[in-house]
Amino acid sequence: MFISFEGIDKGGKTTQSSLLAQYLKKRGYDVVKTFEPGGTRLGMRIKEILLGPSHAKMSETSELFLYLADRAEHVQKIIKPALEHRKIVISDRFADASIAYQGYGRGLEIDWIEELNRIVTQGILPDITFLLDITPSLATRRGEKKDRMEKEQMSFHQRVHQGYLELAKSHPERIKVVPGEGTPQKVHLTIREALSPYLASRQQNKNHPVKARPKRVSIEGNEDVV
Ligand SMILES: Nc1ncnc2c1ncn2[C@@H]1O[C@H](COP(=O)(O)OP(=O)(O)O)[C@@H](O)[C@H]1O
Ligand SMILES: [Mg+2]
């Protein structure tokens, strides 16, 4: 199962992905907690370029492709192998972030970003995405803005915030909007509740596998699997 956390900076993604990972681990699930950008070795280098002070004026398209390169590496090295081993993957940001930030925020063509996302994710989509929703003004009150993206002007953060809400409207079955203003524990409980049917159906699939076991048939004396 693949779970992502999205939303503007300071919405509580890092806090909530940690609380959820702890909770699931305690319940015996095999959890891989990861993040974008920077969840891989190559990604860490890309993150320095993206968020550090050295390239404040990069082009919007360069910014998009750097995030996409980070994601391609993240999917190939971390997410895909973990999902193949039936682990629960929790990612602090994923593909929706490029639509919200580079699409709605920077004004790049959303159709292109969707297409490029399909390429770099190899078609992998989260089963459930928690959009932690706080207003950009609450985000400002939650602490200092440090990196290149966080330092963008208020109007940028407002477009990103609206963009995320549009995305949630277009994908209501996958993206759950979670109000982010309560205490961390209260927000965590809302997330647990929303996740519980997914955990139940995962458990059911485990007990009653949908796919029948491959039949062994003999072909010219050899045992072969078809
Ligand atoms: N529900 C909450 N209420 C108040 N403060 C919070 C809450 N969740 C997180 N914070 C605080 O807000 C800041 C940003 O949280 P964080 O989890 O790092 O957000 P994000 O990863 O979305 O940027 C941190 O200082 C964190 O302790
Ligand atoms: Mg964070």
Note the main attributes of this structure:
226 residues; alpha/beta; Rossmann fold; five-stranded parallel β-sheet; two-stranded antiparallel ribbon; 8 helices; 7 strands; disordered C terminus; binds adenosine-5'-diphosphate; binds magnesium ion
Short description:
With 226 residues, the protein is an alpha/beta fold.
Major sheet summary line = 5 strands, parallel
CATH topology: Rossmann fold
| Number of helices in the DSSP assignment | 8
Overall domain count: 1
From the helix content, strand content and strand pairing, which structural class follows?
alpha/beta
Unreliable spans are 212-226
Radius of gyration: 19 Å
CATH class: Alpha Beta
Mean pLDDT: 92
Which molecules are bound in this entry? adenosine-5'-diphosphate, magnesium ion
CATH superfamily: P-loop containing nucleotide triphosphate hydrolases
β content, as a range? 15-25%
Strand order of the largest sheet: 2-3-1-4-5
